[in-house]
Amino acid sequence: MIDARALRKDFPVLDQRVNGRPLVYLDSAATAQKPRPVIDAVRRFFEEDNANVHRAIHALGERATAKYEEARRKVARFINAPSERTIIFTKNATESINLVAYSWARARLKPGDEILVSPIEHHSNLVPWQLAARATGATLRFFDVTEDGQLRLDNLDSLISERTRLVAVTHVSNVLGTIVPVASIVAAARRAGAVVLVDGAQSVPHMPVDVQALGCDFFAFSGHKMGAPTGIGVLYGREELLEAMDPFLGGGDMISSVRLSGSEWAELPYKFEAGTPPIAEAIGLGAAIDYLTAIGMDRVHAYERRLTAYARERLEQLPGITIYGPKERGGLLTFNVDEIHPHDLATVLDQHGIAIRAGHHCAQPVMEWLGVPATARASFWVYNTEDDVERLVEGLRAAKEFFGYVA
Ligand code: PLP
User: Fold this and answer.
1) Residue 146 neighbours by CB distance under 10 Å
2) Among 265, 293, 321, which residue terminates a domain?
3) Is 322 part of a structural domain of the chain?
4) Which residue among 321, 362, 367, 393 is the active-site one?
5) pLDDT at 157
């Protein structure tokens, strides 16, 4: 089991008081805090190595390039990608998904084709497909969802047909916490010849991920939810598919030759990395991966499961609380407290030094499905403890009292 109390000391931002109380940070699903080794790696890069990559023939340029490419190898190992050629650095999961929507989907889909999406997606794995469908005449279809927020898999063979060209699905829902059995979906998609994109924004920071075992064609995630800086994301893609795709953005670094009459593209992965990339951010992501690897992703997952189960048990003891989503879940709890708007709840909790998320979580269709305009969400990572959960419970009691709902 991991020692969250000890790990917490690695995160300088957590060592502060907010509104007079020690900070309890329960919003890691939005963005995670950064451990000291990541902060140091980024600082060291700027203090010692800062230069552009893949261009300069000088020592700093070579060191910057070596560190940037080393980060790519770390990412490949972390998600068990077959080669670093299949790892493309982007600015976030959203851009990774849009890259596929533009470079793969728009060039291939036509009227009559279907894109199968789940109704529990973050907007970033829904809106790009709505845009691609509008541009190509393809149709969006949706998985069915069970009452507790899991994707129905017993009717997959009727949902996925020869018309299905792409299945886009989240690995872990950022609202319901649902862990989607991606490998079974990939198997059904394979039978129909469809390509599968997995949104791993909420899985990679929290559990071991092996893209070859999942069997998916594309896998997208963001660095900032796993301890790395903002501004760095990853797209893994199957090499044959990436090879066959046209670039997403044009400019420097993504070409092998440019003439006024036309250009040729650089080899993978550079074909998809136009312009100066997020160099320090990628190096920070490499440091975050080292940090998580040293802890062990199996242990991170086991710890979060235990802490989330504990939190669920404690919150369920409070009257008037509705918790959404299945029992088996990722490291977050989404809930509402009777009669208190989640924004008001978050405001009162903030007064007690507790940071949660309140709103629609960039998943308005999920809110519609739940029949609520918004929810509160507490999300956990390696630095959260049972004490944090107790502070949340205490804060919720205080909020109920404040709004006059003493039970
Ligand atoms: N997918 C899921 C499931 C998410 O939770 C998020 C962010 O909250 C994203 C995608 C988008 O991530 P980003 O905003 O870093 O692109």
Assistant:
1) 12
2) 293
3) yes
4) 362
5) 86
Angle CA(227)–CA(231)–CA(235) in degrees, nearest 5? Answer: 85
Give the tens place of pLDDT for each residue, 10-48. 999 999 999 999 999 999 999 999 999 999 999 999 999
154 and 264 in a single domain? The answer is yes
* 124 CA to centre of ligand 1 in angstroms: 7
Whether 201 is in a domain gets the answer yes
Residue 330 CB coordination number (10 Å) = 26
Q: Supply the Cα-derived Rg of the chain in whole angstroms.
A: 22
Residue 216 is among the residues annotated as catalytic for this protein: no
Is 407 part of a structural domain of the chain?
Answer: no
pTM as predicted:
0.97
383: number of Cβ within 10 Å: 23
Same domain? 9 vs 104:
no
47 and 20, same domain (yes or no): no
- Residue 84 within any structural domain of the chain: yes
The closest of 123, 213, 138 to 170, measured between CA atoms, is 123
Q: Which atom of ligand 1 is nearest to the CA of 94?
A: 16
What domain range includes position 306? Answer: 4-30+297-402
CA 47, CA 188: separation in Å to the nearest integer?
50
Pick from 111, 189, 184: which is nearest to 150 by CA? 184
In 3D space, the residue among 291, 284, 189 whose CA is nearest the CA of residue 234 turns out to be 284
Residue 59 pLDDT: 95
Q: CA 99: distance to chain centroid? A: 16
Ligand 1 mean position, distance from CA 220 (Å): 9
Task: Return the pLDDT at 327.
Answer: 92
pLDDT score for 306 = 97
- For position 405, what pLDDT does the model report? 64
- As for how many domains the chain has, the answer is 2
pLDDT, tens only, 309-341:
999 999 999 999 999 999 999 999 999 999 899
Q: Which residues contact 32 (CB under 8 A, 6 or more apart)?
A: 205, 224, 225, 226, 227, 381
Q: Are residues 357 and 239 in the same domain?
A: no
Residues 74 and 180 in one domain: yes
pLDDT at 364: 94
Which regions of the chain are under pLDDT 50? none
Q: What are the distances in angstroms from CA 94 to CA 221, 223, 367, 389? A: 8, 12, 20, 31
Amino acid at position 332, single letter? L
List phi, psi (to 5°) of 337. -110, 130
The closest-lying atom of ligand 1 relative to the alpha carbon of residue 30 is 8
